Amino acid sequence: MFPIRRARSPSDPTGAGQPSARRRGALLAVDLLDIPFRRRAAPALLAIVLVGLADLLSGRDRYLAPLMTVVPSIAALTLRPRELLGVCGVGLLAVFGLSHYDRVDTINDARFLWGAMISYLLLTVFSAWVAKIRMRRAAAFAAVSSVAEAAQRALLRLPGPVVGPLHLAVRYVSAADASQIGGDLYSVLETPHGTRVAVGDVRGKGLGAVQTAAVVLGAFREAAYDEAGLCGVAARIEASVERHVPDGEFTTALFAEFRRPGVVELLQCGHVSPIRVDQEGRAHVLDAPDPWVPLGLGRLAVGEPSTWEQAFGTEDVLVLCTDGVIEARHRGNGAFYPLAERVGPLVCGAARSAAELEAAVGRVYADLLAHTGGELRDDALLLFITRTDGAQGPHILPG
C-alpha cells in the first residue's frame, strides 16, 4: 500500500533539491505524514464508530462506552500529538453521548463513568507522549536515511542519462532498508580508450560491502583512464582489492568497452552474463567463452583473464544486472526471476529514444516486483545501455 523503497534512476544525477527538502521528504515517508490526515485518522475514527455502534446495538442494559479507550492507542500509531488530541476529543464526546443514551445516572453508574473518563484522559495524554516519541525516532531515522543516501550518491557518482555515445537507464535498489546503501555498484566513464562500463556485486551486505565497493569503484575510475585494455583495468582493480579488502571477500564484475561502432568488448569476472536484446525483441545471453574468477580471487586462478567481442548496433539494448535480479524468488513457488525469458518483449524497441529506454527499465523493474510480490531481499541493479553513434546495425564478427 505504501512504498518502502525507491528505485534510483540516473536521470537526475545531482539529486535536485536542497538537503533539507530531502530530509523532510524522508521524514514524511517514514512517519506516514505524506498520507492525508483523513486517511491517517481513519483507523481511530473507525474505532469510535464501531464502539458507538456496539453500544447502541447492545441496548441500554449494556454500557460499552469504556471500550473507547482503544482510540488513543490506535491514534498514537499514525497521528501527530495535536491531531491525536483532536481525534480523542471526538471519542470523549462519544463517551458522554453514549452515557446519556444508556442513562448512566445512578451513583454507582456515575462513579463508573468518572472512572472510565479518567482512564480515557490519562491514556490520551500518554498516547500523545508516545506519538511525540514516535516522531522523534522517525526524524532520527530520516536523518540517517538522508546521510546514507548522500553517501551512496558520493560513492556511485551516478552518471547522467548520456555518457559518450551511450544512453543509460538504471534501477538500483538496496536490501538495507534503513540505510538505503548496498554492495551493488556501477560506473560509466568516457575515457581516451572509449566509453567504459563496470558493473559489480560485492559479496555480503551492509557497511562492509560498501567499503569493498568503494575500493573497486575507486580503482576502476583510475585504471579506466590509464590502461589501454580491459584486462589491464581488471588487473589494477584486482591488485587494489588484494591490498585493501579482507581475505575471503570478493566482488563479481563485468566490464564493457565501447570503442568501435557496432561492437562491444566484454570481460566477465564471475558476474551475471549480459543480455543483448535486438530490434525484434529477441534476447541473446552473452556467455563468456572463457570467464574469469571474481575480483579478489585472482591469486587462486591459473592463467590470465581474456576479453571477447560481441556485435552491438544502434538498434540493440545491452541489459546488465546483478544476481539480486536473477535470484529474486517468486512470491509463491520460490522460482528465480527468468530475466532472459521476460526481458525481450519488455525491452523491444527501447533503443529508439532515451525516454523509451527509461520506460523499458521501468517495465522490467515492475515485472520483477510483481514476480516477488513487491519485496526484494537482496541488492538489485538493472542497467540498460544503447548506443547513439553512427553504427548502421550490428556487425558480423568472425568465429
Automatic annotation (TrEMBL):
Entry keyword set: Hydrolase, Membrane, Transmembrane, Transmembrane helix
Keyword Membrane recorded: yes
InterPro entries: Bact_Sigma-Reg, PPM-type-like_dom_sf, PPM-type_phosphatase-like_dom
Gene3D superfamilies: PPM-type phosphatase domain
Signal peptide limits: none
GO MF terms held by the record: protein serine/threonine phosphatase activity
Domain of life of the organism encoding this protein: Bacteria
Membrane-spanning residues: 113-131
Domain PPM-type phosphatase: 166-387
Segments for region (Disordered): 1-21
Protein name per the record: PP2C family protein-serine/threonine phosphatase
